[in-house]
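To: structure subgroup
Subject: Chain for Friday's discussion

All,

I'm putting the inputs and outputs inline so they're searchable in the archive.
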Amino acid sequence: MQLSDRFAASEDVVARQMEGETVLLDLNSGLYFGLDPVGGRIWELLAGQPHTLGDIADRIEDEFDAPRDRIANDLIALAKELRERELIVPHGA
């Protein structure tokens, strides 16, 4: 997975804010997945429209106080996990 990869939120996922975190419900499996505030912001960006991971990293860097390399590494790790759980889907080629 690379920063140039483009993803969108799966249409089969419902997201809600609950007590400071974003909770995702996969309607296909019935499983829940929780995101911290940064992960929740990433989800908001993906749910709005497809984005490259690089675009998301740029936005997170602008909005949160963290080094770019850490943002990129954490973002890729989260995207891998969300993709494995089919909560996000590749968009475009």
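Points worth raising on Friday:
The chain has a mean pLDDT of 91.
The radius of gyration is 12 Å.

D.
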